[in-house]
Amino acid sequence: MVDAVLDNVRKTFNDGQVVAVDDVNLTIEEGELIVLVGPSGCGKSTTLRCIAGLETPNSGRITFGGHDVTELPPKDRAVSMVFQNYALYPSMTVYENMEFGLKMRGADRETIDERVRWAADIMEIGDLLDRYPDQLSGGQQQRVALGRAIVREPAIFLLDEPLSNLDAKLRAVMRTEIQELQRKLDVATVFVTHDQEEAMSMGDRIAVMNAGDIQQVAPPSDIYHDPNSLFVADFIGSPEINLFRSSYRNGTVDLGAFDVDVPDVIATELDSGLDSDEVVTGIRPEDINVVEPGNGLLDVEVQVIEPMGDTQIIYFDVEDSRVRAVVPSARNVTEGGTVGLDVYWPNVHMFHPDGPKLVKWGNAVDVDADAESGDGVRADGHGEEAQ
Asked: Residues 220-237: what's their mean pLDDT?
């Protein structure tokens, strides 16, 4: 097993006019599955291609297990890559597709056969070895592409949006199978996707990218519950976080429709972190609670209800902003009806208008102590439910 380290890797195109990867630093640990996630064009696939050797960085260094591979061609890097379009040879059988890489490296026939049948058994495609790619379903082609990648026993396993061509149900199945495969191989793996659900469900850690830059690298739970920037908070989460352009003065944050006096420790963070009175308040939809009218911070009219099975997303307007709340489906609310709103303040985030996180309320404040002191911060986040 080896790790992979990217040290200030930079990749540009068009004589430096387009910066695809902007001085990226990233370590993929031995046996770790790390997911690169971000919007289209953010540089995640280019980063993967630099690791694979398909692109050469303009500057920076890439090492595998401490060995510099920055200038090495793909064939000398001990990497295996699965592409979005699977890249199977249409004129070759499944067996021939899977053995191709080993043949090119001069492996003997016995080793080739042993490795191909081992990989086919893992991917459960042993009965497909004599078929051609056009005789396979999308899911079967994906299994062949994965099988072809693992026969080489790669030091680094790279997957570039490998599930994007599959339907939703099959994607969910293949996500689990890729995770199980990665654990069996116990090899450093980089998985690229623009789908945050894939990222959150698969990665040991997630690297969120934007405009060629890695914004945050952390386990999925940390990315969701403690984003370090406005971009990460807004990109990760479905439905997306509610962001309120707010003002802060003398220990009070004014969100427009209501204001809140912040504890001294929060005020200290805002005083030191802000260079104006502007602050962005981030509240996840599940941290907005529906209560009886008159019992919350304010009353609103429910505009739209979106049923989601065991939950429902409620849309309403606060000032000029469309706001979302996630509540249990059993909660009795109706479109056009009036409800009160309450907020679970420990999960509220404060951001600088330029993007960096200033403070998460619950990270700075002892929630239990505040609840006991009765300063208005709820310990459970729930008021009287609307009936």
From this structure: 96
Phi then psi for 345, rounded to 5 degrees?
-65, -35
- Token couple for 205: 């850690």
Query: Cα(213)–Cα(224) distance, rounded to whole angstroms?
Result: 19
Which tens digit of pLDDT belongs to each residue from 265-300? Answer: 999 999 999 999 999 999 999 999 999 999 999 999
How far is the CA of 126 from the CAs of 99, 115, 239, in angstroms? 14, 12, 41
Is-cis flag, bond preceding 239, omega within 30?
yes
C-alpha 166: how far from its chain's center? 19
Question: Residue 157 has which token pair?
Answer: 């396993």
Whose tokens are 């990460």? That residue is: 232
| Token pair in block for residue 149 | 């990648």
Cα separation of 133 and 164, whole Å? 18
DSSP structure string for 16-36: TTEEEEEEEEEEE-TT-EEEE
Mean per-residue pLDDT for 123-145? 93
Residues 336, 332: Cα–Cα separation, whole Å: 13
Burial class (CB in 10 A: 0-12, 13-18, 19+), 21: buried
- Amino acid letter at 227? P
Percent of the chain having pLDDT more than 90? Answer: 81
CB-based contact 309:296 (threshold 8 Å): no
The H or E element containing residue 54 is none
Tokens of 307: 């049923």
Q: Mind listing the pLDDT tens digit for each residue in 314-370? A: 999 998 889 999 999 998 899 999 999 999 999 999 999 999 999 999 998 875 545
How far apart are the C-alpha atoms of 379 and 345, rounded to whole Å?
9
CA-based nearest residue to 118, from 142, 153, 78 = 153
Strands (E) located in 31-148:
33-37, 59-64, 67-68, 79-82
